[in-house]
Specification:
Chain lengths: 479, 444, 444, 479
């Protein structure tokens, strides 16, 4: 399909601007001005509409297709939450920060504040900030909070312990905050090797970061012990709650002893993923860490009004422009109100049911590196198919032709030829059965006609792409 | 209940296939003693009850005429932006790991990257960052990585929120941050010259800056590069319809808030941050990047590229921890730019400056009010008032006007100064009202 | 200007290809003396200025709590309806003459027809008519065609607007309309029996009727058929979640307003009218009909069928002049029904009746107010007040409540009666408020 | 694709209703109740969303595709007009009809009233009603007005004269009102044979209905003469203005002498066609017909307030439930405000330019039954291709594969193998050139490889459908 720059016609005009009701200003001196207009396309409104409508039809999403992309919780995003977020579009965030301005934002502040309270109860933590703009941003914020805690206590810490079954953002976030990352391998039970962990634990460890359930979709039954050991060593424990979908109403990180947790509103709380974002990664903490929360913090004054705390000297400072991805928070809030207590418990029950159903219906044809009850997702290895020269990627492409978005492949990296399937709770048995059928067909084809898998996909507007060429040529901008 | 489709019959069949007796059995890996001690949440409700509740909450917000900016701007948003970004194939998709069924997102993001490059005059853009502030922090870390040095110099006239983010991001790293107090609301070039040495990784400026001042940094590039540092500039996307782009000023990394491009104010988010750099630094960019390639039949297509920079592969050695970004908001930015087009963006920028210049004159005509400095401005400018700006703002909020941002909050000593923003959405009538009310607040 | 894409260069090329010198030349077929004598319209404006203007106009409407119905009802509309009907492939397409690239519309309309058949208990539905009133008129004309007779009998309890439409449609035809004054707000069966003879083409009733009364017409079908006439019934779609469908009452043609199914009130339109009939009358249906068939490979597909009934082929011999219909609104109806589902529609209907019964008791408890008749009702009921209902309505409008429709406007002699509508959207609190304000208006 | 009834699962629930805040009522006696719930599908919200999203992707529209469907004016529908219509969704129409209720609807009434005024100026008529719900409905209303006029005058009229180049709705509408239709053939100049017309004209003719430009896309230079002749004979003249796109700002039916005109807001005034509707067909009349306009009529009172006229005894009565398709009127109003005077003139100029461009670029390969300057559309005959056994339908199907919606085919019926192309003014030269290329390719293929045309379309989810089977089996409802 043509690029939008390729359909541009010199002199063509699109959206018209309001007429000016003031005189033209004296032009700025030339040195401040751009030599010529930026090379934006020149299009009619219809050109624009048709271009992006066509592009959208070269995409699939949850609304068109089952999308069991592991670790991404591609559940149905209720349309009513889109309507809810629309209610708050015109409010300028700066207004709340003006002297006397909070009074003009009581509605939006109440949403942030109440969402924080709901998340406190959901995670069992003492306080929540909704400021972080995605899960990884929450992690970084959380590790900064831990760093500030240790600094305030005069603790000198150098390391963050991260099992290799944790999400890639965990070590990356720890490194962003300046810690050295100690990686612990996975033991046969499916999570962090406890002996190796104990060996790595020492007084210079700032934190232990657990993804729970981990990237294998498994729940670690030793998390309490890990928390206790870490605390004994003077380390805090971080709970990557991006997989909260599995444990809503079943377990609360705060009850177990975790000190910091982040959740992904765009996964567990049903907000759409927008071709890559926006997300929202609120962070919950235990009491000891509250003094360090980022500013501005939404607090309730004694008179019941909501206010912004802007001048806390112990705070880590600021991690985002304003108050977080408000529109995402509002959607998640709408979602949480609709589901309520029973609805949220229902989420984890059905998410786990769906994942175990898929796992059990496929485990005869694909290897399960850790054959046990999974949580909200299951991870297979397509290693068995390598004998036919068939790779996980071939299975993925075949699934596209069958009308499915593929699962996550080659992640987690600790599983060879990983196929990571997260069905989510909003998918029906009929959909899962169709997907299972396609996965089984793929395994059979791997034996009988591997070339057919290698050809896939054939139903898409383009076939497999040359990724090496892209990386080599680095053509990232239309010339 | 909620949005799950399961009927009792289906649940029974599924449990049988799994070989367990109940859904509860599936949670056996969670030890009893770790089970939730409480889950005290309100009961659920229908979407209609939820909407009624949120409508009530929305009604608790006030409405005022905003003459404030500070990174987010009240610009027009053509209806096509909401409409096209509302195509659910875009917003219910995720990161396009599987390019064959994601060419829509991928091509759009490639077009977005191209638009950012064209706006900034640089060669390599990623597919978006969280916001302008975190983009500035990422630019600092990028410069630190590229130069291997340990100091960044930041103009104090950079948005104070963004400077705070940079400080927070770098707080735990072995890095020194030097903030140069602005002189007359502009970069203190003299002091900067004295601080530029071989420890300096980056000089970070903003154009227009928080006071509204517009600069030509063309000479700065050479100076900074001579010291082996990089020049980083934050920019205001809409202003680039008129102002000299960073690429023409020797800037190495440009960042900014993309909100002004078709994203609603929405109480501060979601919008997006952009980052663009000279091509040679592409491998140091944070986040997703889309690249052009071909399929087996030689047809053009787009893929995520240079993924080896990213956390899901490189883990702690990644260029950043960012995973989810703000793609949908970046898409809105692209649609906005495409629907205004080349001439439209120029006109929009000019309209902003015309309105702001008109307002500047109107407000400077108010008794006791003077213009902060004679630096050129775009659509924001600072004023000195004969009173504490904070008090004036409070008074005018009660009259339904957000008159500007009091500078004293962020620049101690400037308690009587106010930065005023005038976008194309402000009418002559609103400007006259502001002038009248300002006069009233000052002298009645 | 506007939405045309032409650049001067392109215009030049196109004129050259045509072989004329200017666009003006292309209008040479229009004689000079016929040219427009005036075209005095305001200059154009941007979409932003237009929106500001319309927002101002919207603000000139008042907001009241509506206890009114009369064919249009204030029901919930799930967000999915707006979202899915907002898919531009649906709303920027037209009549699906080319089935291969229009299976989306065609299948949806087939599903809509099926939903109407299932709701009404009849076998053949078309793909929508303009509204409930014109659907009733079309049903009358259909019955006249089918029977070859020349008289229609209409229950006076049928919506007076719809009766007016029937009168207007038939005014110039050699047809006699007999309207039976209702007795106690219900069909006068006795009088009807006396009028049923071999000149009668149709008996037309409505259930629930304009007074709110619900009837079982099961016996009427046989009686009407014996005389060789058809029984036509207007129905209220949402009520069919609970009430006996026309198909089970011997009705031959059922019609109604589809607004209650997922269409916004929108000051009365657009919504849709539905019409369904016994299968044997399918060739006499007006408007588009979608039928199932197969493609060359035997795959199921859908097409417009029985087009030989329609104006574009039959011209003056067509079953109706209707061309554009209300397909998008019918699609909304289908999405509404699908998202509520079988049990949801039943619940919705029950909820309406529960609220209305509650309100009926609450209002009947107001001093001096009595219930109009003991006929069962659905979500509308009539009251007798101790004052002129029109005056009460005026008084309550000032208090922010549309208390109901004064019956006297449409039924001389009933000046003290009021028909009140209570949908699921009215809260207990609003009902209490109505009762309180009614008491106040009557006695203060 | 499966029908929505086929994916239903017993017991599955979708959208949840608000909780009841009142006690349950005593159930109605059984004879009033339905025996069992209507057979609606049982689906989750995601089922519904995915079903209709997928269906939408089996459709094309103006937003995806060039759509030169003749006689339908498939122009770009500006998105801002959708936003505009959203502003007025919650107002119940009954409220304006209550005593004292008009005051609560001044905004919406003003839109209807001002749109009427704008249309008066655009068409040159004295009054306009916006009540008719589509073009054909407007025609019927117009003919009823004429009938009422004659009745009031005591004129006894039986006939309506309609040229065969008029739109099918014209004779159908006249027949609905009880008139006998006299059809006049088309003369070589491209419209109603004047001699035949004069012969048919007599004192019993109520009206002459002219579609102008007619369904051949041609402007009839004799309309003034026709008006005069008709008037002399005591008949009124009706202008089918559905093709107003061609003459906006160039000619006004009122100036020429027409007594009644309808316009199609959904064609000329940019409102979307919704897979078949809704439309809106306002009717303009000359002074003599004003007394007969349908009720309720929106009128301006002396005090400036807008009111509803409900009790005019001369009125034809009521043609629609309330005030017309208000949402369509609001969109058209928004469109008209945006375009303004110059914008509307630009519409007709570019519409006529585009049509003549396409006509001239194709007339060497397709026959032009009337080879003259066209207005907003042009009508070819594919008759020349019959020698290769290629029909207009084959060209149409081939165009689908080329990425275009086909033109109207087999209409008007007075042209053999008609291909009726209406490009509209919002299409660019590049799009027209691509379409012209495809049409030319089709004509070449007709000679070289007619079988290829017969196979088309091959890019759609289904191939050509068996229309005979559909008509025979009359399967119009899922069993
Ligand atoms: C377990 C886990 N942790 C963290 C993240 C990072 O979240 P985000 O993409 O919002 O930054 C993800 C994202 O998928 C995840 O699955
Ligand atoms: C010339 C002409 N007249 C009348 C009509 C009928 O209009 P509608 O479909 O709105 O009833 C049309 C519709 O396309 C038309 O083209």
């Amino acid at each position: 399909m043509e690029l939008i720059y390729e359909i541009s016609v010199e002199g063509r005009r699109g959206v018209r601007l309001p007429a000016s009701d003031v005189p033209a200003a004296t032009p700025l001196p030339g040195e401040f001005l751009r030599a010529e207009p930026a090379g934006l396309p020149e299009l009619s409104e219809l050109d624009v509409v048709r271009h992006f409508t066509k592009l959208s039809r070269r995409n699939i999403g949850v609304d068109t297709t089952f999308y069991p992309l592991g670790s991404c919780t591609m559940k149905y995003n209720p349309k009513a939450t889109e309507e809810a977020a629309r209610l708050f579009l015109p409010l300028h965030p700066m207004i709340a920060l003006l002297p006397g301005g909070e009074a003009l934002a009581q509605g939006t502040l109440a949403i942030i504040h109440h969402m924080g309270e709901l998340l406190e109860e959901i995670t069992g933590m003492d306080a929540v900030t909704c400021q972080p703009l995605a899960g990884a941003h929450g992690e970084m914020t959380g590790i900064m909070l831990i760093a500030a805690y240790h600094k305030a206590k005069g603790n000198r810490k150098k390391y963050v312990i991260v099992p290799d079954s944790s999400h890639g953002t965990n070590p990356a976030s720890a490194a962003m905050v300046g810690y050295q990352v100690v990686t612990i391998p996975t033991a046969p039970y499916g999570d962090m090797d406890l002996d190796a962990f104990k060996a790595a634990l020492n007084g210079e460890v700032a934190a232990v970061m657990m993804t729970c359930p981990n990237t294998l979709g498994l729940f670690n039954p030793h998390i309490k012990e890990i928390c206790d050991l870490a605390h004994d060593a003077g380390a805090l424990v971080y709970y990557d709650g991006a997989n909260l979908n599995a444990i809503l109403g079943q377990l609360r990180p705060g009850d177990v002893g975790f000190d910091v947790v982040h959740v992904n509103l765009h996964k567990t709380f049903g907000t759409p993923h927008g071709s890559g974002g926006p997300g929202s990664g609120p962070v919950g903490v235990k009491k000891a860490l509250i003094p360090f929360l980022p500013m501005p913090q939404v607090v309730r004054r004694k008179d019941g009004h909501l206010a912004l705390l802007n001048d806390n000297p112990q705070s880590i400072g600021r991690v985002a422009n304003f108050f977080g991805n408000f529109g995402v928070i509002a959607r998640a809030y709408a979602y949480t109100l609709m589901l309520g207590r029973e609805g949220l418990i229902d989420v984890s029950e059905k998410a786990v049911l769906n994942a175990n159903y898929v796992m059990n219906r496929l485990k005869d044809l694909y290897d399960l590196p850790f054959d046990q009850t999974c949580m909200h997702e299951c991870v297979f290895s397509a290693g068995r198919l390598l004998q036919h020269d068939v790779h996980a990627i071939d299975i993925a492409k075949f699934l596209i032709d069958k009308g499915f978005h593929p699962p996550t492949v080659y992640f987690p990296m600790i599983v060879k030829e990983a196929i990571m399937i997260e069905p989510t709770e909003t998918e029906s048995k009929a959909t899962l059965d169709a997907f299972i059928g396609a996965m089984r067909e793929a395994a059979e084809l791997a034996e009988k006609d591997p070339a057919a898998l290698k050809r896939a996909p054939v139903t898409t507007p383009i076939s497999r792409l040359d990724e090496t060429k892209a990386a080599r040529e680095q053509n990232v901008c239309f010339a | 209940m909620g949005f799950t489709p399961h009927t009792p019959e289906e649940i029974r069949e599924m449990l049988a296939a799994i070989g367990v007796g109940s859904i509860g059995d599936l949670f056996h890996p969670i030890p009893k003693e770790l089970r939730a001690r409480s889950f005290d949440l309100p009961p659920g409700m229908s979407e209609f009850e939820m909407m009624a509740r949120l409508q009530e909450m929305a009604a608790q917000n006030g409405r005022v005429v905003p003459f404030v900016g500070g990174g987010y701007y009240d610009h027009v948003i053509p209806a096509v932006v909401d409409h096209l970004a509302g195509r659910s194939e875009f917003y219910t998709a995720y990161t396009p790991y599987q390019p064959e069924c994601s060419q829509g997102s991928l091509q759009a993001l490639f077009e977005y990257q191209s638009a950012i490059c064209r706006l900034t005059g640089l060669e390599a853009s990623n597919a978006s960052l969280y916001d302008g502030g975190t983009a500035l922090a990422e630019a600092a870390m990028m410069a630190l990585r590229i130069t291997g040095r340990s100091r960044v110099i930041m103009d104090g006239a950079v948005n104070p929120f963004h400077r705070a983010i940079v400080r927070t991001y770098l707080a735990n790293l072995p890095v020194e941050i030097v903030e140069l107090p602005p002189v007359n609301g502009m970069l203190d070039r003299q002091s900067l010259a004295g601080k530029l040495d071989d420890r300096c990784a980056a000089v970070m400026v903003q154009n227009p800056n928080f006071f509204g001042g517009v600069a030509d940094y063309s000479d700065l590039g050479a100076q900074v590069h001579k010291s082996g540092a990089l020049l980083v500039s934050a920019v205001y996307a809409v202003s680039l319809g008129l102002l000299k782009p960073p690429g023409e000023m020797g800037v190495d990394i440009a960042v900014g808030d993309g909100q002004s491009l078709g994203n609603h104010l929405s109480f501060g988010g979601p919008a997006f941050g952009f980052i663009a750099a000279r091509k040679q630094y592409i491998r140091n960019l944070p986040g997703r990047i889309v690249g052009e390639t071909v399929d087996r039949e030689g047809r053009r297509g787009f893929v995520l590229t240079l993924q080896a920079r990213e956390q899901h592969i490189k883990r702690h050695k990644a260029t950043s921890n960012i995973c989810s970004n703000q793609s949908l908001c970046a898409l809105r930015g692209l649609i906005f730019l495409a629907s205004l087009g080349k001439r439209g963006l120029t006109e929009l920028a000019r309209l902003n400056r015309d309105k702001a210049e008109y307002a500047k004159r109107a407000l400077a005509a108010v008794r006791g009010v003077t213009i902060f400095s004679d630096a050129p401005t775009f659509n924001e400018f600072s004023l000195r008032l004969p009173k504490r700006a904070g008090d004036v703002v409070v008074a005018l909020l009660r009259r339904g006007i957000a008159a500007g941002v009091p500078l004293g909050t962020y620049y101690p000593g400037e308690e009587n100064s106010l930065v005023v923003t005038v976008t194309e959405r402000r009418t002559k009538g609103e400007i006259a009202l502001l002038a009248r009310e300002l006069e009233g607040a000052l002298w009645n």
